[in-house]
Amino acid sequence: MLSSYPELMAFLPCTSPESWVHWAIENQDIMLVDHAHCEKKAASTAMSLMYRYVERDNLLHKMSRLAREELIHFEQVHKLMKKRNISYEHLAASRYADGLRKKIRTHEPARLVDTLIVGAFVEARSCERFAALAPHLDEELSAFYISLLKSEARHFEDYLALAQEYSEESIDDRVALFREIEQTLIVEPDDVFRLHSGPPNKPI
Fold first, then answer.
1. pLDDT at 203 over 90
2. Which Pfam family is an annotated match for this chain, by its short name (predicted)?
3. Hey, is 1 helix, strand or coil?
4. What phi and psi, each to the nearest 5 degrees, are found at residue 200?
């Protein structure tokens, strides 16, 4: 399913553990609630970048489009939840995004570059997880997740291209650093299920 996105798969350090996929199948209500939160946060991140870096024309263009698409995805997930009588409630975030952001540098333009690289990993992992889940879900939900792959892959590409555009040097070393962190976050066990969590701490 992800054969059309070889750059994305080469970018990620690993695929999602099978035990995480099984965990997701058993927690589809939580999966959808957390997915809705993730789409809303993704739109918020894009808007935040637009407010912070008003002088970056290409960033403004890319992030404006991304924010609109993420909000549409939020609306689509929320509609599915309502159809399935799933309440939209607050959920504590997984350690994934914060774990990546801890290594973001604080001076510019390094801060922007690292933030964009983290965004690329978040979008790439979301795409990989949607593809991993789709074969195991009901027809409606499977079709929805497959429909998201193209936009998520494009968001990954946009974030990564912007990171290189605004960096004063090659971003390869920074990508390698965040790839190592991302792999740890994906393969180490978690106590609670989330869309970006690791595998379950206990056998399911």
1. no
2. MiaE
3. coil
4. -65, 145
